[in-house]
Amino acid sequence: MGRVTTRRPVLRVSADSTRTRPDTLAAEEPLEIRVNGRPLTVTMRTPGSDVELAHGFLLTEGVINDKAQLLTARYCDSPGPDGRNTYNVLDIQLADGVALPDTSVERNFYTTSSCGVCGKAALDAVVLSTHYPPADDPVRISAETVFALPDRLREAQRVFQSTGGLHAAGLFDSDGEVLVVREDVGRHNAVDKVLGWALLNGRIPLTGCVLMVSGRASFELVQKAAMSGIPVLTAVSAPSSLAVELAEDQGMTLVGFLRGRSMNIYTGQHRIHPVG
């Protein structure tokens, strides 16, 4: 399995000194996901939880909605220069009767660690078809619980503490208890790992749950949450205009700029109990 971090020498320059010292960096390596032996996508990710990542990706692409629809996930031979498997090619075998991913819409299947939805041929090619409409979820959450989520997410970010270079996604219940946290150089990969964990543990749809992300709330992250039945998405930074439009259309609660004891609630305000 690939390393989550790597060590490199760095020239440290300050106002009164210059010295060479080792630095810990977040690892970034390509992962090719194949379905029934056919290459589907390549994403730049932090090694680890690759099977969860693949499950979450296929869930949010609408290929599967139950873990029984996926038979096996195994690493393929991809020998590196020293003759060892690099664990960077994962082949997924779907169960009989499960349709292969639709490739009729032109897509750039190379996905960078910073953005996934920009690989679509056009925005109007993104089709959202969820089995678990978030609008139907009656959950209500106190503002105090929401205010506590960033600190709880940061406490669980083990690799971020040593590198400072990873995004995180955390899944919480309506009382703010941590269900799972995953880190990755790509914000969409971190979310896919969380949703893959949920799928593998029979927790889809994620009714009554909150997804917290360490960066901004993009259109793609709202889409992934909606495909999993998540009613509430919170983010440390800003949402995009399309993210807000999609959240409103899907009946989701979308929170941005969640910092300290303040937040902006863009949609679904009825799910958040006010302070006091």
From TrEMBL:
Designated gene of the protein: fdhD
GO cellular component: cytoplasm
Entry annotated with the keyword Cytoplasm: yes
Active-site residue numbers: 115
Protein's job: Required for formate dehydrogenase (FDH) activity. Acts as a sulfur carrier protein that transfers sulfur from IscS to the molybdenum cofactor prior to its insertion into FDH.
Pfam entry (one): FdhD-NarQ
Protein's cellular compartments: Cytoplasm
Domain of life: Bacteria
Entry-linked SUPFAM superfamilies: Cytidine deaminase-like (SSF53927)
Annotated protein name in UniProt: Sulfur carrier protein FdhD
Classification via HAMAP family: FdhD
GO MF entries: sulfur carrier activity; sulfurtransferase activity
Family affiliation: Belongs to the FdhD family.
A biological-process GO annotation: Mo-molybdopterin cofactor biosynthetic process
Keywords, alphabetical: Cytoplasm, Molybdenum cofactor biosynthesis
InterPro entries to which the protein is assigned, alphabetical: Cytidine_deaminase-like (IPR016193), FdhD (IPR003786)
